[in-house]
Amino acid sequence: MHRHPRIHIRAAAVAVALALLAATPAGAQDHAHAAHGDVGRVHFPTSCSAAAQPAFERGVAMLHSFWFDQALRTFQQAAAADPGCAMAHWGVAMTLLGNPFTGASPAEGELREALAAARAAVAGARTARERGYAEAVLALYHDYPSVDHRTRLRAHEEAMRGVHQAHPEDPEAAIFYARAVIANAPPADLTFARQLYAARLLEPLFRARPDHPGLAHYTIHAYDAPPIAGQGLDAARRYADIAPAAPHALHMPSHIFTRLGHWDESIETNRRSAAAEPDSNAAVHPNDYMVYAYLQQGRDAAAERVVRRAVQNTDRFYSSILGYNYVAMPARLALERGRWEDAAALPLSAGAPPHVEAITRFARAIGAA
User: Fold this and answer.
1) What CATH number does the domain containing 54 carry?
2) In a domain, 98, yes or no
3) Phi, psi of 179 (to 5 degrees)
């Protein structure tokens, strides 16, 4: 059956949109140590001991780049060096939240662990500023059995707004507040009012702290939409060099490159991200972005090689928030290459969550039309 080219383009665009939407941030003792180098530089004064402070700041740098497993271990090292370091417990609780931009709640076991860490942070806070941070992370967890995740994210944002207002001299308070604002931005608001508000908080700080990983990362998230993506291009081109050890920092620039059609830059940064990620299942997200970029350049064979390599050993990942990437890649190939029979025959994955199954069913319907 003949398909009009406009129908083909529209079908591919909707498939891409579905995939993207499915996924879719001092009165203390001032220690001079800073986390720096391969994860960027963070200066976050606390009342923790000199033995714990460097690990704490490095953990914050990793947290800002969503290198969660490494951040968790590093915060635990800080807590071991100084069991009374409330902010190390705060870091554990913040890390266990995972990516706030997905809208997905942590699993039950992680919620319990995070709640215990948040309570330890509140109990151990030695300054009003630290108590503000601790109470803000406690807002994410303390009533999780009875209050939904989105409501708790909004409570966290409000608490971080209070920390920022009480401590306007503290850049980390502004950064974590801006992250929460972006995470809670209504997806249907095409004025991007909250994202632009967050960007106004972040950009002056980024000019003063050009090697801070969180400022680059959340600036990209603030502008992660085609109408405003151009304003995030500078952050996108700098972030991978700020934190080259963090796989997510290597991938994240491609959110802006994709919105702007900078396909070569998207392919290269996602190639680096996938190569840096030891877990092949976690590398599926940059691989999906790489496939999309190759297809926009008409490099079908290169896209197919990535798909063939990436879709191995996927059973456990279909229940993840990123499971959609596995089904989006073959759907993209079939739809964008006009392989309608292949699209109609895409296999459904047993036990796949709705946001994953919807992509395959949509592609099958287009293929069978």
Assistant:
1) 1.25.40.10
2) yes
3) -60, -45
Q: Tell me, what's the pLDDT at 197?
A: 99
Residue 88 lies in a domain: yes
Task: Choose the weakest-confidence range: 63-67, 285-289, 351-355.
Answer: 351-355
- 243 conformational bin, left if phi > 0, alpha if psi -120 to 50, beta if neither: beta
Parent domain of 89: 25-186+191-198
42 backbone dihedrals φ, ψ, rounded to 5°: -130, 130
Spell out the residues 6+ positions from residue 275 whose beta carbon is closer than 8 angstroms to its own: none
Rounded Cα–Cα distance for residues 35 and 151 (Å)? 33
End-to-end alpha-carbon separation of the chain, Å? 9
CA distance 156 to 13: 35
- 326/318 Cα distance (integer angstroms): 8
Q: What is the pTM of this model?
A: 0.88
Give the angle subtended at the CA of 84 by the CAs of 81 and 90, to the nearest 5°. 95
Q: Return the structure tokens found at 164.
A: 């920022």
Helix %, strand %, coil % of the chain (to 5): 65, 0, 30
333 lies in a domain? no
> In the chain, how many domains are there?
1
- Name the nearest CA neighbour of 124 among 14, 116, 144, 222: 116
Tokens of 187: 């997806």
List C-alpha distances in Å: 220 to 114, 279, 322: 27, 24, 19
3 state DSSP class of 277: coil
